[in-house]
Amino acid sequence: MSVTRQDVAAAFALLDATGCKRSKAMATDDGLAMALATWPIVLSDLDRESLLALTIAYVRSASSAWFPTPGELLALRSEEGLDDALEQWGRVLRLLATKGRARPPVPLVEAGAVPPGGWCLSMELEQDRAMRAGVAAVGGWRLACLMQDRDLPTNRAAFRDAYRGALRRGVRRAEVDEIGRITEGPARLLLGIG
Fold first, then answer.
1. Is 101 found in the same domain as 70?
2. What is this structure's pTM?
3. How far apart are CA 113 and CA 125, in angstroms?
């Protein structure tokens, strides 16, 4: 699930409680309200736990005198090992062992809505797409079920690269959608459009 305004407020409370100073842009009530509205959009590929984990990692860093930008938090993601591609690979291996060739996963068409009689790799839409891309990169579900031990390192790398690429595409897709949504809202008024 994507980061919400309440999740961002919790991260801001953590930053405040640990003595981080707010930037000039967030020093006013209007600036804080704008940050609370825009951060969930910019950080839409994170969930609450990831946001708070990155916030804690930032607070523990030597550069935590000021509130971070969303980009500074996202830069910590790879440093903190929050890339879950290998964790999802392990999940796929467990599913291969328990589900077998006869019952391949079905695509998730809406977050949290599993098609009747089927099962999905993930209940989150973007993660399901990314995991399906990873499985496709190793030859698909049926071939993955036939994988030999000697194939594991190569297939793990193929899964990891395809999974990460699909997640990046999903983030870009979400960014394009959010830009369209933003330009239809208050930003149009601020820019004098419409």
1. no
2. 0.52
3. 9
